[in-house]
Amino acid sequence: MRNFEKIQYISQGETAEIQFKNIENALKNGAKWIQLRWKDASKNDLKLLAQKVKILCKNFNATYIINDDVDLVAEVDADGVHLGLDDLNILKAREILGSEKIIGGTANTFEDVQQRISENCDYIGLGPLRFTSTKKKLSPILGFEAYQKIINQLQQNNIYFPPIFAIGGITKNDIQPLQNIGIYGVVFSQLITDKPALIQELQTEFI
Prior knowledge:
Elements: E1 7-10, H1 16-28, E2 33-36, H2 43-59, E3 63-67, H3 70-76, E4 80-83, H4 90-97, E5 102-107, H5 110-118, E6 123-126, H6 143-156, E7 164-167, H7 175-181, E8 185-188, H8 190-194, H9 199-203
Parallel strand pairs: 1-2, 1-8, 2-3, 3-4, 4-5, 5-6, 6-7, 7-8
Helix pairs in contact: 1-2
């Protein structure tokens, strides 16, 4: 199993300049895992930003993931891709990217998690924990009980599972309860965008 950072940051911003600045602020404050996510960008604008962020992440020795775009990951030589449930199949992405790239997948239910495991993804983003305005098409809210139920089902059936990250409206106070459930790490977007200086404080919450 790969050794991943416990905190992921998903970028925000309506322009390339804002995206870049938010990522730079996160890195300067200690972020070590960046996921570039800019849904409304043109293909060319996204490519130009992706190339700049690649250099930035390399300078800070941070893992660099691109949301959805497998071809762009290959083109800019990012560390990996994160794929939603409606995106390219993980098995096809693996054929394109090879075994060395990180491939993460979104999940919302136990069945989704089983699918991701069968596809041999490297990590799973499970959520949302609670409502978040960051994502336009939000899956059903899980809450702590659903996280616990899913982890219990995996353990009771002796199913090996990769690192599972919680996502969706997460706060600092959620980190320890999520760890107690068996969640590996957490994904932040708005919280770190608004207060990048919180990153080091968030990191201290992990055992």
